[in-house]
Design a protein that fits this description.
mainly alpha, 2 domains, 10 helices
């Protein structure tokens, strides 16, 4: 993954060490990181590069230095977490609806709103599209996980 980044993770860490946080916040690399932990595994100083990338994405969104595509990523992440918090597991139809609606409200793009609509019949035919999602049996466990993360300012 690092080979395709505008700034490799090692250089991003170095930018931060040198106090160039604004340059790091504008790097495309922070949005390309998939948190695979390869960088952390290979790092001789055991730096949690994925954690740093997560923090940089969060700061970038908070400071408003994101592109429209990056803003959609943030909207998706928020919709995903709300969905898991509410249901204890993923309800795909609910997630798609919330994400598409929030993206529409944010950017007023009708084309994006209906972009994937024609996939539904194909998914239904293959039994990959579930109209009713299941909820986790013990959502209290999920609630405790979210509470712990919120207490530690991770969400």
């Amino acid at each position: 993954m690092a080979a395709g980044m505008d700034i490799p993770p090692t250089r991003l860490i170095r930018l931060l060490q040198l106090g160039h946080a604004e340059r790091a916040l504008q790097a495309q690399a922070i949005w390309q990181c998939v948190s695979c932990q390869t960088c952390a595994t290979r790092c001789p100083k055991s730096v949690d590069c994925a954690g740093v990338m997560d923090a940089l994405r969060q700061l970038s969104a908070e400071r408003g230095v994101t592109t429209p595509k990056q803003q959609r990523t943030v909207l998706f992440q928020k919709a995903f977490l709300r969905n898991i918090r509410r249901n204890g597991r993923l309800n795909e139809l609910e997630l798609i609806g919330e994400f598409k609606f929030s993206t529409f409200l944010h950017g007023r793009s009708l084309s994006f709103l209906f972009k994937d609509a024609m996939l539904a019949p194909q998914l239904m035919k293959r039994k990959k599209f579930h109209l009713v999602g299941e909820k986790a049996h013990d959502r209290a466990v999920v609630a405790r996980i979210f509470a712990r993360c919120t207490d530690n300012s991770l969400l």
